[in-house]
Design brief:
With about 150 residues, the protein is an alpha+beta fold. About 55% of the residues lie in helices and about 15% in strands.
Length: about 150
């Protein structure tokens, strides 16, 4: 590791690029230069030496994808289309699985509909019996009135 001169900052190693020197003086800036077909993808290509410490993000050089012929472009389009098809199939498959599960639950509920139908019939029968019980006093009154008329 090189010795850093007093009043300077050591510049970091940059993959696929670099600085023009290994050090930058206090208060000065250094800008990274990327190798051919590489760029700094944002505006963070410069660092500042302040109080013996580099200020700013360490620059990164990334490769630029260059398509020079129609074949490569077509291949890229095919790959993107395949990715879209896979994502669409995943969504459709998820929906189908959800639907099947929902259908089973619905079928189970409709199978239980027999039990529900029995409960409804029992409820109707109970309501009919209650009506009869309500009607018994009226019926009994009629019988009592008829008996009074006959005896009277």
């Amino acid at each position: 590791m090189p010795v850093v001169p007093l009043g300077s900052c050591a510049l970091p190693q940059i993959l696929n690029g670099g600085f023009s020197s290994n050090f930058v003086s206090e208060g000065s800036t250094a800008t990274v230069t990327c190798s051919p077909s590489y760029i700094v993808p944002d505006t963070y290509d410069t660092v500042l030496c302040k109080d013996g410490v580099l200020v700013g993000r360490t620059p990164v050089c990334v490769q630029v994808l260059q398509i020079t012929d129609g074949t490569s472009a077509s291949l890229l389009v095919v790959l993107i289309c395949c990715a879209c098809v896979v994502m669409t199939c995943t969504v459709v498959l998820s929906f189908v699985l959800w639907y099947k599960k929902h259908k089973k639950v619905t079928k189970k509920l409709s199978d239980d509909g027999i039990g529900t139908e029995i409960r409804i019939r029992q409820k109707e029968k109970l309501q009919t019996e209650r009506r009869k019980q309500r009607d018994i006093p009226n019926h009994q009154r009629h019988i009592n009135m008829i008996q009074k008329i006959k005896s009277g």
